[in-house]
Every structure is written in C-alpha cells, then in structure tokens.
Amino acid sequence: MFPEAFVLPYQERYILSFPLSGHLFLVNAALVNALRQPVPEISERVFSVDLDLPIKTEGCGHAASLTPEELGDFAPTSVVIFVTNGCNLNCKYCFATPQYRRPQFIDPRFARAGMELAARNAARKGAPFGIHFSGGEPLLNPSFTARLTEYAYQTAARHHVPLHLGLTTNGNIDAQTARFTQRRFDYVSFSVDGPPDVQDSMRPTAHGDGGFARLDRALGVLMSEAKPRVEIRSTFTAAIVDKMADNVEYFYRRWGVSRFCFVPLRETTRSRKSGLGAPSSEALFQAFIEADARADALGVTLYYSAHRHGPVAGSPHFCAISRDYFGLTQDGFVTACSQFPRQHPSRNPLKFYLYGKFDEETGRIVIDEDKRRMLHQLHLANKQYCLDCFARWSCKGDCPARLFGYPEGGKPDFLEMYREFPSPYCPLNQMLAYYYALKRLGLPFISGGFQPGSTAPRHRITTVELPHLGEDPKVFCADGPEE
C-alpha cells in the first residue's frame, strides 16, 4: 500500500515520512501501527476521512518516479568542456594530477564538435543550450578559453537557442581575466577553502606562494555586478571542519556571496602525503548544522550534494552520470563524471567512466553504446544496499565516484560495487535527512535522539515494530494534535 513510507523515532512520538510525495507528519505510535495493518479501509480512513490530510493512499508513491528513463538516442543538450589538465595552483589534496610545466589543452575541433552536437539537440527539443568550462584551471590560458567562449555564443545564435554558460575556477586570475569572466559567463563556481591563512595553506600556487590576493580581487570584480551568479565550493578536512560556520559568514561579509556548497575531503595519495585526513560523519554533521544555522541567520543558501532539501521529486539519479553526462576531456575522450576527466595509465578502472572519443580523421564524436548502457545503470533503482533506507531519496545513493574511490584489481566489478557497497558517508546522509525532516516540521534537533543505521529509521513502516499504546491514531503539528 505504501511503497515508500518510513517511520523515524522522535522523543515519545514518530515522524512519518513519504519521500516520494515530500509529506512529513509527526504522529503517535497508534497511527503507525494502524498503517501496518494490511487493511485498505484503515489506510483510507486514516488519511482521507478522520484526519483530512492533503494526501491519499495512491499519492504516496509514483511508479514513474521509481523507474529511470529508457535508454534512448544519445542526445545531450549540454556539454562540459575540460579545457586543460594544467593548473596554476598546487592544492594539497587534488585528485586530478594537474600539470604545471606541460599542460595539455583540448583540441578546439573536439570542443566545437561537442558544442554543435549539444546545440542541435537543444534546438530540436526546445531546451536551453548549456556549456560549462572546467579543468584543471580553465582560465590558465585566457585567450584560448575566450576563443571557445566566442564560438559558444556563435553556435547558440546559429541554432537559435538560449545559451547558459558556466565556469569552475580557482580564481587565481588577473583583473583583465576577471572582467572577461564577469561579462561572458552566467554562472561561476569558485573553489575557496577559507580566509587567507587557510586558502594559502590548502591551495598554494604552483610556485609555492599564496594566491588569496588574486582570488580576492577576482571575486570583488564578479560580485560588483548582478551577473554572473556566483557560488563558492569548499573542501573540508578533519583539521578545518569546525570552521564551516565561520566560512559562511566570512564569505558572505567579504564578498556578498550567498550560495555555498561544502564537501568533505576525498582522500587521495596526494592528501595522505600532505598529512590531510577526511572528517568523520559525526564531525561533518555537527559542523554542518552549525553552519546551516549561521546561513539561516544571514539569509544565504548552504547545501551538500548528497542531501536534497525539502520535498524530493523522486528522481532516482544522483547526478547526470546515468543520464548522459557529456564531458569532453583535454585528451580526446568523452567522460561521464567530472571526477574522472582523463585517462590514467596505472588506474585502468578509471576507464569505466570514459564512454566515447574524438575521431580526429572524421572530426566526429564516437560513443561506445555498450559502455553508455552500463553507466545508465548507476541509479537508485539499482542500489540494493539503500533499499530500506529512509534517506535514500535525499542522498540518491550518494556520489558514485565517492563510492568507488579508486578501486584496484581484485575488487568486485563496478556495478556490483555500486549495488552492494555503502557510501563512506552513509551516517552523515542519514543524520542530515533526519535533521532537515525536523527542520521542516519546526521541531528542534536533540543530540543523541537518533542513531544512524538503527533498525527503526532504516526500515520501511511495514517492518518496524512499535508498541500498541491503546491511543487513537493522531497526527500532531509542532505544537500539538491537529484539530
């Protein structure tokens, strides 16, 4: 009857969650027990007659939401262009192995072919045409990126489609490049880890000095106008995770930035050599809820990629990896993941994400349909480990790259790993889902009142055991029973 109904304990009551519809209720044990009875009349009476709630039995789950789209023709309307593997920073935890002395830049013919393909599809579908430049550092050679940018505008005009142009940068750019960025881009994500002492320690330049002054100037230029929309993305290690709330306030008061994405360090060989460790789920959660309170006070937006705020639409996809993410790497490949924008001779498993290449002789992009079909299986409907977890519709199984890490030989194949292996941050994802459920209901979070992974929160309402207290079924608002 209720394919996606979960119960979570809260003091002497329970939170009843319908993630596919986005409904949350604070209820007593008697109501939960009533829902456990396989009698349709009880469900109908509880939900539509006695309590007059804005939900009916058939509205609790939507079959279409549980099923991913069929694998159709390859027809992306947006493209991510990894301009170069070169970078002017030497971040202590970078997973991308940037090149400083001999950077490689994408073949302009490959970039233009990708733009043309996405623009044609956008025109045919009546959709916006999206381009995002990434790297390495995509502004390492500003004149090269400027030429790609002008071609993007020309392509959009030729196909009569609106262009949404985005950029991810470390901000270590001069004033002229900052002004070019401000004029030509709609959205810019800056990678910033904190105030000058933190930023220059975690993200030194390739020459070993600090680059905060150039970043500061670049952000000042971009925030002086309404365009572009600016976001700051920060990586937190165990040593600085307690600075998260202070970062929100610092970034807002210094530059006026109002949107932040905070993520935990993903440990790599480089980060371990630098003595940097990932924060625990518990430390991240405590830091995040403090930062969330600070963000609320300032009226700004803070988010974490593995938690979706508010009602969840029911899409089974964490990201576009299972929906034809169209990334063009500087060495001529099509990648399904921004975390893996290149080949690597010693890490063959990374080739899992590469599902196409540029044919230099014909100037065409060739897609490996077998590989593409495999990538389309990386969605929540195939994530067996998450089947009975109440948080699965907010974390969507978490980032596949975070799940896989850098697997070596001898481990299970990729699809088996995806189906059966948990995310290292499952406890964090569950705690955040619980925290935001309480926040939506206007209820205070009580430390120690919820243990991630425990029987009650993890399982569907049809399997949880609750005491029969002899009460009438009741739904409560934050201040007491509903009338």
List keywords for this structure.
483 residues, alpha/beta, TIM Barrel, 11-stranded mixed beta sheet
Mean pLDDT: 82
Q: Regarding CATH, which class of the largest domain? A: Alpha Beta
What percent of the residues sit in helical stretches (DSSP H or I)? 25-40%
Number of domains: 2
Query: How are the strands of the biggest sheet laid out side by side?
Result: 10-9-8-7-6-5-4-11-12-13-14
Structural class: alpha/beta
Biggest sheet descriptor: 11 strands, mixed
Question: How many whole angstroms does the radius of gyration measure?
Answer: 24 Å
The appropriate CATH architecture of the largest domain is: Alpha-Beta Barrel
- What percent strand? 15-25%
- Number of distinct helices: 17
Molecular shape:
globular
What is the CATH T-level topology of the largest domain?
A: TIM Barrel
Question: Distance N terminus to C terminus?
Answer: 26 Å
- How many β-strand stretches? 16
Spell out the blueprint of helices and strands.
Elements: E1 6-10, E2 13-18, E3 23-27, H1 29-36, H2 40-50, H3 63-66, E4 78-82, H4 108-125, E5 129-134, H5 142-159, E6 163-169, H6 175-184, E7 187-191, H7 196-202, H8 212-222, E8 229-236, H9 244-255, E9 259-264, H10 269-273, H11 281-298, E10 301-303, E11 327-328, E12 333-335, E13 354-359, E14 364-367, H12 369-375, H13 392-395, H14 400-404, H15 414-420, H16 426-441, H17 455-458, E15 475-477, E16 480-481
Parallel strand pairs: 4-5, 4-11, 5-6, 6-7, 7-8, 8-9, 9-10
Antiparallel strand pairs: 1-2, 2-3, 3-15, 11-12, 12-13, 13-14, 15-16
Give an overview of the whole structure.
With 483 residues, the protein is an alpha/beta fold. The chain folds into two domains: 6-65 and 427-481, no CATH class; 78-366, TIM Barrel, CATH 3.20.20. The protein is built from 17 helices and 16 strands. It has helices spanning 29-36, 40-50, 63-66, 108-125, 142-159, 175-184, 196-202, 212-222, 244-255, 269-273, 281-298, 369-375, 392-395, 400-404, 414-420, 426-441, 455-458, and strands at 6-10, 13-18, 23-27, 78-82, 129-134, 163-169, 187-191, 229-236, 259-264, 301-303, 327-328, 333-335, 354-359, 364-367, 475-477, 480-481. Strands 10-9-8-7-6-5-4-11-12-13-14 form an eleven-stranded mixed sheet. The protein is globular and about 70 Å long. 40% of the residues are buried. Residues 39-64, 345-349, 406-410, 454-469 and 478-483 have low confidence and may be disordered.
